[in-house]
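The instructor's notes for this session suggest beginning with a concrete chain rather than abstract definitions. Hand out the sequence below and ask the class to guess, before any prediction is shown, which regions might be ordered.
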Amino acid sequence: MEKRFFATDCEGPISKNDNAMELAAFFLPEGETFFARISKYDDFQADVEHRPGYRAGDTLKLILPFFKAFGVTENDMESFSRDHILLLPGAGETLSFISSLMPCYIISTSYTPYIRSLCRAIGHPEKNSFSTSVPLDQYPIREDEKKRLITIEKEIASLPDFDWPASASGLSDLSLDHRRIIQRLNQIFWGEIASMEIGRLLFEIHPVGGEEKAEAIRKISALLDNPLSQSFYAGDSITDVQAFQEVNHAKGAALSFNGNFYAVREARIACLSPNTLPVSILACIFFQEGTSGVFSLAANWNRKGMLEAGVNPSWIDSLFPPNASPVSEVYLLNSENRSRISERSSRFRKEVRGESIGALG
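After discussion, reveal the predicted structure:
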């Protein structure tokens, strides 16, 4: 049997949290709206503008100067994270089960204090995780910069929501009003804050998103001496795009779990589920039969297909209860169903994680 390994994003496939948004909402006066604007800006920079050196998930460094301005410490981040973990039903059992079959890793854009807390809560070894290191206490902030950032936080939160056409490839494709919002955010981050002493955070903190997640997959492959063709990666958002592409290129298995548009666009399989049991099943089949077995089961996600694949009958009954609708949906994605399933998955994502988190990129 080929050696195989499993890796997953955290927020989405394992937990319902968006830890960075929740930290902002708790510690900053206009935190939730403030975070939503910066997250949308992040999507534009990463997926449309392709700003040189910018990575999906860099929201997590853009908000750090504001954390400093409002007095947030590393201990604050750790304590809040520890007390606000919201696991998806079955997540701990799923990771434990998969770990009994093959090496199992978490690759997360989330801050390390959150991932450390989550690993301790579910008994997953922290050494088998990648996350965004954030030594916030090492960065002093001047009083004048603190005052200015407090004002800017309020300004960003007051900006109208903005969007762009699906075909957009740059600023010129946006409406004039929305273009001005992006231009103002460019001035704030890459002009004003970048010139502050605390602006070092924008250049010295490196969130594990986008290409960094793909690099983490490659590091695991090299560490285990396992080819990427024998990798299974689960993700749900724009920060997983490059990891999906890396795994797909190697002909591994890329799963969107309650994913948004960006995730479903790049994955080969999509799962819509209120719990993690489908991930346990797909990972078990992957361990036994590799990518071909996973794709076959995804294309035949029904009682008959599962029985033929040898899935535990009690698991089948849990997902397909008699005289009731199926609990979860799994699809093998193709050009004909991808758009339809993307819409379904985006709606389901909001039902599971809440409207505010589910709407984030």
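Then share the key points. The mean pLDDT is 95. Residues 176-195 form the longest helix (20 residues).
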